[in-house]
Amino acid sequence: MEILEIKSNAFNEGTWIPVKYSARGQDLSPDFEISGIVPNAKSIAITLDDASHPIFPNYSHWVIWNIPVQEFIPEGIPCGKLVDSLGGAVQGVAYGRNR
Question: Which domains does the chain have, with CATH numbers?
């Protein structure tokens, strides 16, 4: 059985996500490399939750779903509810933005 693994060139596991990828920076989404995707996968969803948020534990900063199955998702996904460059993927709202 394959193990689903996700990593990013933007940061290492267990480290803080750089300011560049926050609303205090350029507010970019990081890139993602995914391995171990099962052959019958229909789409990919990503959630970015903040387990160390001081006021709202496990605060959801970003969610995107209906990404076509692919092993690399590029940095800087455009803002907006629908993402044409990712096959019509849909983004949820965090901090009042579609990001």
Answer: 5-98 (3.90.280.10)
